Amino acid sequence: MSLLPPQITKVIEEFSKLPGIGPKSAERLTFHLLRSGKASPEGLGKALLDLKGELKYCRTCQMVTLQEECEVCRGSGRDRSQVLVVEDPLDVVAFEKVGYRGLYHVLHGVLSPIDGMGPEQLRLRELVERAKAGGIKEVIVATNPDVEGEATAAYIRTQLSPYVPAITRLAHGLPMGADIGFADQTTLREAIEGRRAL
After folding, report:
1. What topology does CATH give the domain 74-169?
2. Is residue 160 within 8 Å of residue 139, measured between CB atoms?
3. How far apart are CA 110 and CA 118, in angstroms?
4. Given this structure, which CATH class describes domain 6-54?
5. 77-90 burial: b if 16+ Cβ within 10 Å, else e
6. pTM of the entire structure?
7. pLDDT in tens, 98-114
C-alpha cells in the first residue's frame, strides 16, 4: 500500500523515465511542483504539450524547428558542401557557438542495441538520401568518442563512402588545461594520432 496518492506516484514515475533523473530526484521535482508558486504544474504541462505539438524536424537536416526547414538550412553564407553529423540538437547549438559555417545532420541518438537503437530508429536514412543527391564533398562525424559513438561513426562511413569523397571524424585528445599525467591511454593515443602542424 502506498501512502502517496496515485497522481503523485504517476508524476514521480514519469519524471524517473527522464535521463539523469533517479527516483529521489523525481520525488523532489514532484513535490517542488506541488508546493512552489513559481513552478506551476499547469505551465509545465502546457510547455510539454506545446513541445510535442508544435515542433517539427527540418526536412533537410532533422534539426528541431517550427518551419519545414530550419534556420541553418534556409540561411545563406553556409558551406553547403560540408555536413557535420551530430547526435542531438544540443550539439548543433554547441557547434554554432564556435562558429561552424557548414550544414548539419542530426541523428537523434546513436546506435545502441542495448537501448533498442538500431539504424531504423536514427535519422540515418535521411542522411544517406542527402549524400546520394550529391553536392556534399565532406561529412564530418561528430558523435561522442564512446563505444556507441564510434560504432555509429563506422556505420556512417560504410553507408556514405560510395557517395561522399571525404568522411572525417572530429579529432580526439587532450582538452585545454588538462594534465597529461592524469589522461587515460585512449585519450593519449587519440591525441598523438590527431596531432596537427604548429
Report:
1. Dna Topoisomerase Vi A Subunit; Chain: A, domain 2 (3.40.1360)
2. yes
3. 8
4. mainly alpha
5. eeeeebbbbbbebe
6. 0.80
7. 999 999 999 999 999 99
